[in-house]
Amino acid sequence: MGSPLTWARYFLTKIRVSFAQSLRSYEVGDIKEKEIYDHVFKNVLKGRLTFKHMIKGTEMTPTFASQGETLLIRSLPRPSPRSVFVGDVVMLKDPQNPETKLVRRIAALEGEEMVSLSAEDEPFKLAPGTCWVLCDNESISPKSVGLQESRDSRSFGPLPLSNIVGRAIYGTRSPVDHGFVVNSDDAMHADSPVLAVELDVEELTTEK
After folding, report:
1. Mind giving me the DSSP string for the chain?
2. Active-site hit among 104, 151, 154, 167
3. Is 112 one of the catalytic residues?
4. Catalytic site residue 113?
5. Tens digit of pLDDT for each residue in 125-151?
6. For residue range 75-85, what is the model confidence (pLDDT) as tens digits?
């Protein structure tokens, strides 16, 4: 379950996330200002930092199995360039259909210059508060025929960071085929205490 240092890092992470969740709830009007600290306290005591998500399809192969894989997602209530990084696999709300959740990899963050392979497209810099996300499957393009559309920044453009729900940190294909999701070094360091405390492979592989 982890060393005392791991638990200390976990609870510090939990406090930060709980405070961010409470601020977000306050900003959207779900709680009042005087309820923020009570909300933080309850989240620290009872809340989890992770949840399960099932992914299917070829968009993220070979990273994830096309026939289906259960991911452990770490919640990121207020994503920013200090909490998400280039190379991270994130779960996001489709900007064209917010009820749909996608899993994509961050390829660039705000301030980076984007240069297209097409001479018709002008280079541009990503605006503050946005990122560029791509499928891992390089054979899928934004102009693919039929169902094989990219559904990434090549089709819907820069993604607001606020659309990011969380980061994929562990994947399971079966009880004997599972492992860490390879993210940026910064993300894997930040997520290590969360994995040490909350990862339960048996629970992750159990369908509900």
Report:
1. ---HHHHHHHHHHHHHHHHHHHHHHHHTTSS-GGGHHHHHHHHHHH--SEEEEEE-SSTTTTTS-TT-EEEEEEE-SS--TTT--TT-EEEEEETTEEEEEEEEEEEEETT-EE--SSTTSPPEEPPTTEEEEE-S-TT--TT-STT----SHHHH-SEEGGGEEEEEEEEEEETTEEEE----HHHHHHHHHHHHHH--HHHHTS--
2. 104
3. no
4. no
5. 999 999 999 999 988 876 654 445 678
6. 999 999 999 99
